[in-house]
Specification:
The protein is an alpha/beta fold. The chain is about 45% helix and about 15% strand. The strands form two sheets. Strands 3, 4, 5, 6, 7, 8, 9, 10 and 11 form a nine-stranded parallel β-sheet that branches. Strands 1-2 form a two-stranded antiparallel sheet. Strand 1 (about 1-5) and strand 2 form a beta hairpin. It is globular and about 60 Å long. The chain starts with a strand and ends with a helix.
């Protein structure tokens, strides 16, 4: 069990708020394969308060998509609170998380995300405003620091957040300047767990059950945040749970299972976007199909064909051909 303030999570594994990725179909696939708590995509306070249709659409959900959390991006405490109240008027998140870790340049230019590592007191003001105004737990997502040779700015920010009412910390083991390159460093996470009184959820490189266990063993963290590890492998939640429970090493997913799951994901997405012209989301369909195809034998040409596909039917056709080609080559061995 993992407790964030008064809320008790049923698992120590959490699906991260992934901008442009963790939409309802993606969350549906992960929940089908063992994910017990997920976040919406990262939500921009400016987009919500200005009534941007695309930002509001990120709150789309259904009865099976629960429990859920919402992560907010912003710099001004009043605007962030206004945005969170919009979220609460349209949804029922169990946790509100303040993003102080996104390294994207367009986010940093707004003095949001990881930029707040340079302004920890400002982050504290936002946390205090939310914690004093809302009844649900407030958490914060940080990175280890700002530059490559950082000064543990992430730890400083989390201490200020804790003092201002934060009930949990999502701690990514890379600096802002690293982006997603190199390996996540366990030491800043371990140090945060040692010095903070609130739960610390480790983040970074949760790409396999073994790496998930390494995160727990080497940091003593209370939970882990699964992000890129779920791209094309939504069953990673089941695999991690089983590995942590009894050391069961998962068997590689079969070729047929991977292709069939990819098709299921695409079908769910198409049905979800049925009122939108396919030409506006075919790029996302290509991205999802490529997630599943990576690492498969005989798939290099398939990925090239997926990249050139112009419709749902074309992508499904490539996947079917990929499976058929594999079956034929396997029988000839």
């Amino acid at each position: 069990m993992l407790n964030i303030g008064s809320y008790k999570l049923k698992s120590r594994l959490i699906l991260a708020p992934l901008s442009g990725c963790s939409d309802l179909p993606f969350r549906t696939m992960c929940r089908t394969h063992g994910c017990k708590f997920a976040f919406y995509e990262m939500l921009d306070a400016h987009g919500l308060t200005y009534g941007h249709e695309r930002t509001l659409s990120m709150l789309e959900s259904d009865k099976t998509d629960s429990p859920i959390g919402a992560q907010i991006l912003g710099h001004d405490p009043e605007r962030v609170l206004e945005a969170v109240n919009i979220i609460l008027a349209n949804s029922k998140p169990k946790i509100i998380d303040l993003n102080c870790g996104c390294p994207a340049l367009k986010v940093l230019r707004k003095k949001c995300g990881a930029y707040l590592l340079k302004e920890p007191k400002q982050a504290g003001k936002i946390i205090k405003k939310l914690a004093s105004s809302l009844s649900i737990p407030i958490t914060v997502k940080v990175r280890a620091g700002w530059g490559k040779e950082h000064k543990n700015e992430g730890l400083l920010l989390t201490k200020i957040a804790q003092d201002n009412g934060a009930k949990g910390v999502f701690f990514h083991g890379r600096s802002c300047s690293q982006g997603y390159s190199g390996k996540a460093d366990y030491e800043p996470i371990r140090q945060a767990k040692k010095e903070l009184k609130i739960p610390v959820i480790g983040s970074g490189d949760i790409l396999s059950p073994k790496l998930a266990k390494d995160m727990f063993d080497k940091t003593d963290c209370d939970g882990i945040l699964v992000a890129r590890g779920a791209f094309g492998t939504p069953w990673i939640f089941e695999e991690i749970e089983n590995y942590l429970k009894d050391g069961t090493t998962p068997s590689p997913a079969s070729y047929e299972m991977i292709v069939d799951t990819a098709k299921e994901h695409l079908i769910i997405y198409k049905n979800w976007r049925k009122t939108t012209s396919e030409k506006y989301y075919v790029g996302h369909l290509r991205k999802v199909a490529i997630w599943y195809s990576k690492g498969l034998p005989y798939s290099k040409r398939a990925r090239e064909e997926i990249s050139c596909s112009k419709s749902f039917d074309e992508i499904i056709g490539v996947l079917d051909k990929l499976k058929n080609d594999y079956d034929i080559k396997w029988l000839k061995r």
